[in-house]
Write a structure and sequence with these properties.
10 helices
C-alpha cells in the first residue's frame, strides 16, 4: 500500500514536470516567434538599436547586453551588434559588452535546451548518426565548443541549443564559449570602431562577407584533416589486422 502511494506520487510529479516543460516550451516558442517577426518588420533592426543606444548613454551598456541576449536566444544575427559596439564604445569596451551579451545568451540557450530537450533526445533518438555525434561531442568536449565559437561559419544561436542536448558539462561549455568568442569579438569590435558612420551598411556587409569567407576556409581545412585522419586510421587498422592474420 505504501509503495503504491509512493508510485502514485512519483507518477504525479513526473506528469506535472512534463506539463511544465510543455507550457514553458510553448511560451518560449511564442516569444521567439514574436521577436523574429518584429525583426523581420524592421522594428528591432541594428540601425534602430544603435540609434536608441546613442540616445541613452547611461544605460546603453545594460540595454545593449539585454538586447544581445534576446537576439542570441532567438537565433538572430548578432554581427551587426558587435560592429555597433565597437562604433559606440571602441574596440576594447565594445568587445567586453559583446562577450558579456553573447556569453549570457549562450548560457540561456544551453540551459533552455538542456531543460526542454536533453532527456527526450537522449532517450528517444537511437539513430547511428546521433550516437556518433554524441560520442564526438564527449570526446572533443570543450575543444569542439572552441572550434565552433572561433569559426564564424557556425551560427552562434543554434549551436547553443545543440550543445544543450549533448552531454558536455556546463562549466566546460562556458569555458570554451567565453574564451574563444573573445578574439573574434575583439576583431569585429575593432572593425566597428573604424567605421565612421554606423549607417554605412555596405561596409558592414563587406566585413561580414570577409569574416565568413575566412570561416569557410578554416572549416574546409578542418574537414579535410578529419577525412585524412579517418582514412589513415582505417588503413592502419586494416594493416594491423592483416599482420595478425
Amino acid at each position: 500500500m505504501v509503495k503504491s502511494k509512493k508510485g502514485t506520487k512519483k507518477n504525479l510529479f513526473q506528469t506535472i514536470a512534463v506539463y511544465n516543460r510543455l507550457i514553458f516550451g510553448l511560451l518560449f516558442l511564442i516569444g521567439v516567434g514574436v521577436v523574429i517577426y518584429l525583426n523581420y518588420q524592421g522594428m528591432i533592426s541594428p540601425n534602430e538599436i544603435i540609434l536608441y543606444l546613442q540616445g541613452h548613454k547611461t544605460t546603453a551598456p545594460l540595454i545593449f547586453v539585454a538586447i544581445y541576449v534576446l537576439l542570441v536566444i532567438c537565433m538572430l544575427p548578432t554581427l551587426p551588434l558587435n560592429l555597433g559596439a565597437g562604433f559606440l564604445w571602441g574596440a576594447w569596451w565594445g568587445m567586453l559588452y559583446s562577450v558579456i551579451g553573447a556569453s549570457a545568451g549562450a548560457l540561456a540557450g544551453f540551459l533552455i535546451s538542456r531543460y526542454l530537450m536533453h532527456d527526450f533526445f537522449n532517450k528517444k533518438f537511437k539513430h547511428s548518426a546521433w550516437i556518433w555525434m554524441q560520442k564526438e561531442a564527449e570526446q572533443k568536449d570543450w575543444k569542439l565548443v572552441a572550434f565552433t565559437r572561433i569559426n564564424p561559419i557556425f551560427p552562434f544561436g543554434p549551436t547553443n541549443y545543440f550543445y544543450g542536448i549533448t552531454r558536455i558539462p556546463l562549466k566546460r561549455y562556458l569555458f570554451g564559449t567565453i574564451l574563444f568568442i573573445t578574439p573574434p569579438s575583439l576583431i569585429v569590435a575593432t572593425m566597428g570602431a573604424s567605421i565612421n558612420d554606423i549607417m554605412a551598411n555596405a561596409q558592414a556587409k563587406v566585413y561580414s562577407e570577409n569574416i565568413l569567407l575566412v570561416g569557410v576556409g578554416v572549416t574546409l581545412l578542418a574537414i579535410l584533416k578529419m577525412v585524412v585522419s579517418n582514412r589513415s586510421g582505417k588503413k592502419l587498422k586494416t594493416q594491423k589486422n592483416q599482420a595478425k592474420n
